[in-house]
Fold Protein lplB.
Amino acid sequence: MGIKTLAAPSVRVTRSKSRSNSLFRRMWRYRYVYLMLLPGLLYFAIFRYGPLYEAQIAFKDFQPLLGVEGSPWIGFKNFEVFFKSYYFTQLLTNTLVISVAKLIFGIPPAIILALALSEIRYFPRLARITQTMSYLPHFLSWIVIFGILLGLFSPSTGLVNSAIGNMGGQPVSFLTDPNWFRAIVVSSDIWKETGWGAILYLAALLAVDPAQYEAASIDGASRLQRIINISLPNIKDVIVLVTLLRLGSILDAGFTQIFAMYSLPVYSVGDIIDTWVYREGILNAQFSLATAVGLFKGLIGLCLIVVANRVAKRFAGTGLY
């Protein structure tokens, strides 16, 4: 018994050294791959994880002259200020409504566009022109997009209101009407990002073995049946991945877009957490408050990703990790 008791630790140490040597050999074998990963790892380490040290000001009454370390500790007071704010419920509701609407109505058009582009692969020129035109809006800033929306929906000179006036109707202030503002925000985001979002699905579709389509065609499957039974199952993992990533940023309703488009008349339906933080945290120099809200958003996003990943693994058989 004594011999076995003494031998067990030595065996574990030997196995541990063996695994370490094996890991080192694998890393050395793929050293150039790890070298290519190094810039990305350094970026996240310096610009993502490094600043987390300064996030402690969320629990302090930050005073620039005293610095991060010298500012007095106040605990969760900044979080209480945000949670007890008169506008908290309104801000959270607006953020969730806009974000969920973008998620629900934004993913299907990208999938449909990718499927359409894959179906016209035998007309490469048409496919290239269509794809270029569809993802070109992604490269336009929201300021430019807002100028286009003004040209369309301006009550006095907009094309839409001109058409309404020609038909005997009254002009509608789409961009300053609370009943229309959210619809304009969501629809403009879909128009801007659908083409860019379709690239991921299209890449997954191009990786599908053409023999599957040929076999289905020989068996008499229609084009719609091939899409349902071959194309969609092959991009299921990508759909789940994109959905999970977007769930993680569900409290990011699009600050730049909202900031460019909203105005005082639509605050009740368009003011989101980020725009409130900009006014209170940046313009009013409440840096601790802004940091506390950022930590709150990050925690909610992390919880959503963990929960959604488990649900996806249980029902879809795949997840983010």
